[in-house]
Amino acid sequence: MMDPDYRPFHPNPSKPEYKVPAGAVDAHCHVFGPAEKFPYHPKRKYTPCDAPKEKLFELRDYLGFSRNVIVQASCHGTDNAALIDALEAAGDLARGVAVVDPSITTGELQAMDRAGVRAVRFNFVKRLVDSTPKEVFLAVAEKIKALGWHIDVYFEAQDLESLIPFLNELDTTIVVDHMGTPNIANGLNHPDFQRFQQLMRDNDRVWAKVSCPERLTRQPPDYSDVVPFARVLVEEFPDRVLWGTDWPHPNMKTHVPDDGKLVDVIPQIAPTAELQQKLLIDNPMRLFWS
Ligand code: 0GY
Q1: Model confidence pLDDT, tens digit, residues 230-273
Q2: Which of 4, 7, 2, 3 is nearest to 250 (CA)?
Q3: Which structural domains are found in the chain, ordered by start?
Q4: What is the position in ligand 1's atom list of the atom closest to the CA of 251?
Q5: Pairing of strands 94-98, 241-242
Q6: What contacts 94, CB < 8 A, 6 or more positions away?
């Protein structure tokens, strides 16, 4: 049963005013359940509303996107069955980011690779997961190396400083979810966001998803306070940024985001056709489809 305070995704999002270029990739979204076929994990911290693959593909087409990168969320733990099922249904139109534990075999990883998985996710967000020892993550990092996968990390801004030594031990590409979740109220010049920008300057293997204004904003449903944060990253690191809807937006407390309005943020954070081409097509295609 869905948590009583859980807010389901928007039932009828608006048509975006911004027309995304042909071939655009929604590089951060999820599938949940349906629970009767793909039960949620016993150790999950929340029970969402089912958000099955058919709904995701419908939204992709409605918003004008061509492809999806589907990211394993914590409510499914290390059971990637719903993710793999969605990838197999999508064929070449989707790629995946899985969550695995170090007991996974090479054969299982290879099967995931054939289904379209190209990365593993390390989740450090305390409200979502119990903490995982660094050795466990390092063992997973070692296992995926042979496949050429990268590592997706989800953390909260205040934890970045303590994570840097760990991130330095990873020698793959690292993609940071939701631009490291800056506290927008602190402004662009706060040491936490400066630290994140410095991390990207110092390491050209670190990428950022300039996503999730709905989670970061202090003035929902107006996302303009988040725009400057995403825009500085897109302008300084145009070849290392990705964009995604974050559909179905689990655990939103303040409002239910309208996905059409989220798409309309894109031209504000990537103001030229050239930047949009990199953000929505060239970068995700290079990372997930080449
Ligand atoms: C959350 C939940 C999860 C992740 C995301 O934005 C996300 O990638 O929504 C999760 O992994 O369960 O509340 O952020």
Answers
A1: 999 999 999 999 999 999 999 999 999 999 999 999 999 999 99
A2: 7
A3: 25-289 (3.20.20.140)
A4: 13
A5: unpaired
A6: 67, 68, 69, 70, 86, 87, 116
Atom of ligand 1 nearest to the CA of 246: 6
Greatest Cα-to-Cα distance within the chain, rounded to the nearest angstrom? 47
| pTM for the predicted model, two decimal places | 0.98
For residue 46, report the distance from its CA to the centre of ligand 1, in Å.
10
Q: Whose CA is nearest to atom 2 of ligand 1?
A: 250
Beta pairing, strands 206-209 & 150-154: unpaired
Q: Are 226 and 184 in contact (CB under 8 A)?
A: yes
Q: Confirm if 248 and 51 have CB atoms less than 8 A apart.
A: yes
For the Cβ of 259 lying below 6 angstroms from any atom of ligand 1, the answer is no
CA distance 231 to 129: 30
> Is 211 near ligand 1, meaning CB less than 6 Å away?
no
Confidence at 41, pLDDT banded by 50, 70, 90: very high
Report the catalytic residues: 246
DSSP codes of every residue in 83-120: HHHHHHHHGGGEEEEE---TT--HHHHHHHHHHTEEEE
Residue 265 DSSP class:
T
CA of 97 to the centre of ligand 1 (A): 13
Both tokens assigned to 221: 């449903």
Task: Name every residue whose Cβ is closer than 8 Å to that of residue 185 and which is 6 or more positions away in sequence.
Answer: 218
Distances in Å between the Cα of 233 and the Cα atoms of 75, 163, 202, 236, 253 are: 30, 20, 14, 5, 27
Question: SS3 letters for 174-188?
Answer: EEEHHHHCCCHHHCC
DSSP string, 44-60: -S-----B-HHHHHHHH
